[in-house]
């Protein structure tokens, strides 16, 4: 029997059952009081002037880092995306093999999570404000380049070819023929990457690279929940402001008729953002000095071979894959399941607030919070990672449902169907292929993010990588990074195939 579209969307939520069973079995009473204090502290955040000053400084560092990394990665990503597009090389009557080569070379940098880049760069360059900027910019630039290249390759080439046949130069033909479609992609996807950069900058702070994330981690480890919530509320305000700004941004992008002037204006704005972010960081850290290269003894082949033989491959790979599948199931199935409870506007508004909250709390902090009342298990990491990504999936699902025509839902309700059935088959069902397609992409992202909770929860490749970095065992570091990159590239290929399948459904 073939499952209907709504059933396929809700089915991944079954991943919650084994996770919750393990979490409840591992719970101990000693943490109930601590969790109660954490919840109470949400409505009584600390307003100490010294604390507010410290948190405000950390927030500035996080925002400046995110803004600088975002603008740099966007400029570099668009440039690399153009250079890796075979269509553009052929437009200039040049062989396309350099584009293919560049596209393959960028696969490795984008396969590594920004946290891995941050830990590696910190070992090589030391603790410096620009380490976090570089850690975000490198994988983000390659991710943006991939999206930009794919969009260029998917465009109808007839208009471009027609302009070339009329005698237009390749540059003029590309700007005129491609700018309307690519301008919209640049604004919408660029805005999405800005929100991602803010989350990444917060996450890197949790692992010692400065900013608000470091303050949040110290407050949680010292059980200063009132101080923790002060920082979380500050981050929530910034997230909400950014989200509303991006909504207006996307709305403008949908209505605008993009041309060369709009593209150039947007490019100037991005470049100014890069300058603003760099100056902001220099002002916040006037004595940071220049980057320095720390000596690293790179391993030879025999060391790599020995490290590969010593690693516990079965447990590492098994834990990483299970963590990915459970977290992906929660992130895909939980949003429609919660929205299904009732289509009432008040409930929908509450759920929107929930998505913001789970996005604001970095997964490592969520793991540490859960460990206060639970034994360390793989389920803890899966729950933290799944809830965080469900915030992203839930937000996108709600935005898509708000833009969708509700004629089918109204018709079902008029025929006597319940509110839940009308919403499920009238509103969610047409949206299901798109939700599942993005879920496939999100699963690829979750595979990269397993390193984040692995570093805290003591599981998978992440834990082994942290142990190797802490002991400066560079042979194991190289082997683990290579393995992690291979896994993420395989996951990326599988998510691409799944996404194409659902989008064609």
How would you characterize this protein structure?
The protein has two domains: 5-27 and 301-504, MetI-like fold, CATH 1.10.3720; 47-284, MetI-like fold (Orthogonal Bundle). With 505 residues, it is mainly α. Helix 12 runs antiparallel to helix 13 (225-255). The longest helix has 39 residues, at 419-457. Helix content is 81%, strand content 0%.
Compact description:
By secondary structure, the chain is mostly helical. The chain has helices at residues 5-10, 16-26, 32-41, 49-83, 86-91, 97-105, 107-111, 114-125, 129-154, 158-165, 170-206, 212-221, 225-255, 260-284, 301-310, 313-339, 345-360, 363-371, 378-403, 407-414, 419-457, 460-470, 474-504.
How would you describe this structure in keywords?
505 residues, mainly alpha, MetI-like fold, 2 domains
Fold blueprint:
Blueprint: H1 5-10, H2 16-26, H3 32-41, H4 49-83, H5 86-91, H6 97-105, H7 107-111, H8 114-125, H9 129-154, H10 158-165, H11 170-206, H12 212-221, H13 225-255, H14 260-284, H15 301-310, H16 313-339, H17 345-360, H18 363-371, H19 378-403, H20 407-414, H21 419-457, H22 460-470, H23 474-504
